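re the bet — no i am not wrong, look at it urself. input seq straight from the record:
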Amino acid sequence: MKIVNLVLNNFLNDSRVLKTSRSLVRLGHDVKVVALHEADLPVHEELDTVKVHRIPLTTRNWSKRKLVQVVKLIEFIVRFTLKYRKVDVLHCNDLNALLVGCLCKATRPSVNIVYDSHEYAINDVPYQPSSTIKVKYWLERFLIRYANQVITVSDSIANEYARLYKIKKPHLLLNCPIYKEQRSGNLFRENLGIRTDQTIFLYQGGLSKGRGIELLLEAFSGLESDQNVLVCMGYGPLEQLIRQTAERNSSIYFHSAVTPDVLLNYTSSADYGISFIEDSCLSYRYCLPNKMFEYLMAGLPVLTSNLYEMKRLVEVEGVGIVAEDNTVEGFRMAVSDSLAQDYAATQKNVFVCRKKYCWEVQEKVLNEVYGAL
């Protein structure tokens, strides 16, 4: 089939869309990722056998006022529909892409739509106003009935979609990395001067609010010794706060983000991986972050906040510790509890687990979804 994998970003760091596209190519389909163009990025390119088209907009540099953003969206919809209305499948990533896909389908009803929801779309922002949630609920409820297949990223979100919209339970396509027998590394100790007797707890990913970063900084700032250290690796609005806190505390380190091709080499250089999401919206409450699977693939036991999906994975598979409370003290207790565990036994479970939670297994789900079309 001729498939367009549609995403309304610049497709610069979207690993899920790239993995999905590569899998569909391997399954014999003609696939193109269509995204938004930004300055300095090529309009057309090919990444790992996947063709990419970033659509330039004449309105791109206009102001960011809401009304102007609507004008930009309209221009994108018109340009997209004129060029891609005759494909077989529109694979729409998230709610904004589903809107574009459905409007395109209105001009050619025979096109198939696969809705790939990467989060709980109607409440995906911390402390979101109830009015915004209602608007997005009614929009998604209207649009989702035009989707031939629905995919999402956690069992809780799939169950909620089935309940809210009275649809068949969506397919579960976890955002797992490609399988790799990753050996332990030593890059953090070499690059940051961390001693061999210190235990490294790693937070990697976006450095923004809602990820529990301020809580982690407070927790490690109050430790009596520097036996346990925190490394924060990534980029985002909280980078400066982390740097300043690290300057004042010998148990906190900052490392800038690294490219995907070497990420596992760095991740495997820690002892534990941290996924401490705050319970500030339903999308976070129901999440199963890709960083958890990245930690497991790198051979790391994990420490997580007490949220349902993460807790279930950690406890069922025996791959780490769940904090009893999503607080500073709760996390400090989780650190102590993790050090009391049999690390070798926990890591053995991690090695077993990573063979189950890899992209090669998820690709079978994708094949099932497209086989149904």
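see?? The chain has a mean pLDDT of 94. told u. also The chain has two domains: 2-176+360-371, 187-356. so pay up
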